[in-house]
Amino acid sequence: MRLFMIALLATLAGCSTSYGPSGLAGGYEETQLAPNVWRVSFTGNGYTTQERTQDFAMLRSAELTVKTGYRYFGFAAAGVRANPGGVITTPGYSTTTGSASIYGNTISGNASTVSYPGSSYAWTFPTANNTVVMFREKPQADTMIYDAQFICESLGTKYKVKCG
After folding, report:
1. CA gap 22, 30 in Å, rounded
2. Helices of type H across 27-162
3. What is the per-residue burial (b if ≥16 Cβ within 10 Å, else e) of 45-61?
4. Is 132 within 8 Å of 145 (Cβ atoms)?
5. Are 90 and 6 within 8 A, CB to CB?
6. What angle do CA 28, 29, 30 make, to 5 degrees?
7. Residue 127 in contact with residue 22, Cβ under 8 Å?
8. What is the pLDDT of residues 67-110, one digit of tens each?
9. Which residues contact residue 7 at a Cβ distance below 8 angstroms, ignoring those fewer than 6 apart?
C-alpha cells in the first residue's frame, strides 16, 4: 500500500500548475493599481513548487510590463506563502497468521497479528504576490530593477512558455 501511494504521488508530481490565467488548478491574476503599478499573483496547486510559483509570478510581471508598453520593472512588495491544502490519510491494516495442532480431542495453536498504521500526506498551495512598478527607462534605484524582455526570454525558455 505504501509503495502504491509513493508511485501515485510521483505520478501526480508532474501535474503541477501550468502557466496561464487562474483556473481550477491555479494560475495568475493581476489588478491594475495605478497607470504603471500592478498587483500580480500566481497560485499553484498541491504539486507546484514555491520556486515555480515565484518564477511564474515574475514571468507574468515581465509579460505585463512588455504588454503595457514598459521596458523595466521592480517590486514594491513581493512575498510567497503556503496556503493549507489538505491531508490524505491511507488506511491502516493488519495481518494475522496462525497454526493449529490436533491430538485426539485436543486442539492447540498459536496466532500472531502484525498491524501497519496508515500514513498521512499533507499538501499546500503556494502563492506568490508581487506589487510591480513599471518603468519606460531604467531608473537609478537602490533596488533590483529587471529588464522585462530578458525575463520573458529567460523564464520563457526555462518553462517552454511563449511570453507576450
Report:
1. 10
2. 50-67, 148-159
3. bbbbeeebbbbbbbbbb
4. no
5. no
6. 130
7. no
8. 999 999 999 999 999 888 778 888 999 999 999 899 888 888 89
9. none
Q: What angle do CA 85, 21, 160 make, to 5 degrees?
A: 95
Residue type, 59: L
Residue type, 124: T
Nearest alpha-carbon partner for 45 in 60, 58, 26: 26
Asked if pLDDT for residue 1 goes beyond 80, the answer is no
Q: Residues for the chain: how many in total?
A: 164
User: 68: which residues sit within 8 A by CB, 6+ positions away?
Assistant: 36, 134
